[in-house]
Amino acid sequence: MTAQTPSASIPIRRPKLDFEREVPRFFLEGNPLKTHFFNALNLAFPDGERFFVKAVQEHKDRITDPRLLAEIAAFSGQEGQHARQHERFFVVLARQGYEVEGMLGRFRKIAQFTNRYVPSSVRLSITAGAEHYTATMASLVFEHDMLSDCDVTLRDLIQWHAIEEIEHKHVAYDVLVALYPYNYPLRILGFAVASAFIGIWTVLGMRALLLQDGRARRMTRAQFVEGRRALRDPKTTRFRVGLRKQLLGYFRPGFHPCQQDDMPLLERFRPEIDRRLLPA
Ligand SMILES: [Fe+2]
Ligand SMILES: [Fe+2]
Q1: What confidence category does residue 104 fall into, taking pLDDT thresholds of 50, 70 and 90?
Q2: 107: number of CA atoms within 13 Å, CB side?
């Protein structure tokens, strides 16, 4: 196996996703808040994924384990596809009348600033921490059937991305602990920065999109109130509680992403997603 051969357990897929068809404005349960939670994350993905790949790739030359090198290649390939497909989704948002260029520009500036002024060890640690968020959300989306009432194109996009986040969840973390072993403060610093950024970005992103809906009268007051009430429904509450519990696991000194066994989820959902989304 060479350093450039991607790992077989982390396949790089090029899914068929139809962004030409009409996607309902509030594609998740008809709920503006739940929809914009995903939209806000969507806006962060393309440049966020490129930031992750750069942080991991910068450390590649110091890795000697051929298995981990293969996983780095596969991780980079998967994240590259995520960036491309989420960028394609921006066309849908534009068609729906959302102005997102300002937010995307702000994100790009923050990423450029961080790449320039923050040490690569910290950026790698931020990446490992952020990957714990994406993998945890991914497994909970399947576990609590969060997309049971979702537009089909968005369901395909989110489920495909979620499967791959689970498949490569350990890669950035393994690079971090291989090169900075026993450096608990560095690991927690990256997780703290990732947590603050994801929290602030998601809230501000949702707010910006909801304000656009309000000003354009696309959303009624009743829809907003009902949307907020639905955030406390049993399924969403279980998702939130599970998310908090699993995220906090990152603070355990002996933590490793693979301690959470997601194999049953992969075995259950991956064949169906591959069958639906991969060209025959
Ligand atoms: Fe990703
Ligand atoms: Fe990822």
Answers
A1: very high
A2: 24
